[in-house]
Task: structure prediction
Amino acid sequence: MTTLEFSYSLNKLSTSLKPFAMKLTRDLDDANDLLQDTMVKAYTNRDKFAEGTNLKAWLYTIMRNTFITNYQRMVRRGTFVDTTDNNHYLNSSSVQIENGVFGNLALDDIYEAIDKLDEVFKTPFMMHFRGFKYHEIADKLQIPIGTVKNRIHIARKLLKEDLMVYKHKN
Result:
């Protein structure tokens, strides 16, 4: 895919990403910033996009990861944004922000657990994660669709066991 075709595809898909950005941020300005960050990252990393894969799923993944990274950075800093006209930043280390959705799992440990998977499980799992359908994975890997489903199921099971330490305790 040429740079021009890639840019056109990004521009065409940007409108479908806006509702997802709004759902994540719940603020119009933050959603626009997230969408812009996503488009910049996608464009600068266009060489990493595998042609023939699902561009929309790739963009959603970039957006979600960008949002999580920004959120975790904000939590680590313990920074509050004053929403008055002057937009002051007030640092406060005495306040701890907890969020059960993003605080339960450490992204680095997830990637490490995925890397530990045998290639036979990791490949179909990552293809499914990137947006491929079961039949597309089966065609690409030249294996039966039932085998694809089984390997993805086993990969999820192994990851769940490996990341059990992060299971929320009541």
